[in-house]
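DATA SHEET
Item: assembly model
Revision: 1
Owner: S.N.
Input lines:
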Amino acid sequence: MPKLDICFSPELLPLYDLSGKVAVIVDILRASSTIVTALGEGITHVFPVASLEECTAYGQEHGCLTAAERDGLPAPGFDLGNSPFGFLDAARPMRGRALTISTTNGTAALRRSLAAEAVVVGAFLNLAAVADFARQQQRDVLVVCAGWKGQFCLEDTVFGGALAARLAPDFDVRGSDATLAALHLWRQGQADLSAYLLQSAHVRRLNSLEASQDFEFCLRIDAYANVLPVWENDRLV
Ligand code: 3SL
């Protein structure tokens, strides 16, 4: 039976063997939610990059949209920041465009996980699509939480618990204390996810940046139930 394990921070990745596994990259607030929204709203493909310099260079080379965030704020000089609402702006239709994006933690976590057999992007918005993919693959799954500057984040871990709950009993979700802890947190918070996650450090950070509408949006479970960003060659499609 395939196993599901959870890596609480990209700093812990050297302790895990990604080979042969499905890596699910999660940064609920907000990079993975924003990437799912972008693809769900008609962006053709996404080039996630770690540095702002790469983002600028990619944008110039490929003539694509650029999005960048540092410390929760839009980085200056790019078309967009890291809000999913950037892709829901009817006044600026983006359907059919490609995107390059760089965020503080999420895109760097993805770049550090490319040794996996398959790499997908997970969020509450596409929980069903991630679970379906894992079932099809029948491989061990590692949920890679982007965290915040190397530290644990509640919302990413709770997503890991939600995915474990969806995949049980067909996956072994009892093999690591990380997964057990995530399941406990999910069970604790699932009845009112918004109230539960309101306590988290990153929600407080976003609220102080007046991005609280992003928080509510990112918790909409299965709003993009058919959208699965999958790594192919050098991009997410
Ligand atoms: O760290 C990241 O990758 C971002 O998602 C953080 S923020 O939500 O844009 O502040």
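QC remark: The chain has nine helices and ten strands.
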